[in-house]
Design a protein that fits this description.
- This protein is an all-alpha fold.
- The protein has a domain of about 50 residues.
- The chain contains three helices and no strands.
- The longest helix is centred in the middle third of the chain and has 35 residues.
- The termini are far apart.
- It holds the Pfam family DivIC.
Length: about 110
């Protein structure tokens, strides 16, 4: 029988090292508070932080829009620009540039 090199197995003969290795493996992979679960939860927290920042920016934009629309001039500006409304006895001319007009397909 060939002689097996016991140089690498020698530390595992100590019961304390063996218990520590089993404990470390258990805590890293199998426990409810394992490293894998912590890593997954940390990525979820990071995603939620980015989502929170996005919604903060959206709230700021909406507050600016509400502030603009709280005055009569803001409402009038919105009505004219977005909905093309006009006052009585007033004409509106909409100028479109060539690059803003969608091109038609000649293959149809």
């Amino acid at each position: 029988m060939p002689k097996i090199n016991h140089k690498y197995l020698k530390p595992f003969k100590n019961i304390f090292i063996l218990i520590f290795v089993v404990f470390a493996v258990w805590m890293l992979f199998f426990d409810a508070n394992s490293y894998l679960i912590h890593r997954e939860l940390n990525t979820e927290v990071d995603d939620l932080e980015m989502e929170k920042e996005y919604y903060r920016n959206e709230i700021e934009k909406d507050q600016k829009a509400i502030k603009e629309l709280s005055s009569d001039l803001g409402v009038e500006k919105l009505a004219r620009e977005k909905y093309y409304m006009k006052k009585e006895n007033e004409e509106i001319f909409i100028i479109e540039y060539e690059d803003s007009i969608p091109k038609e397909n000649k293959n149809d």
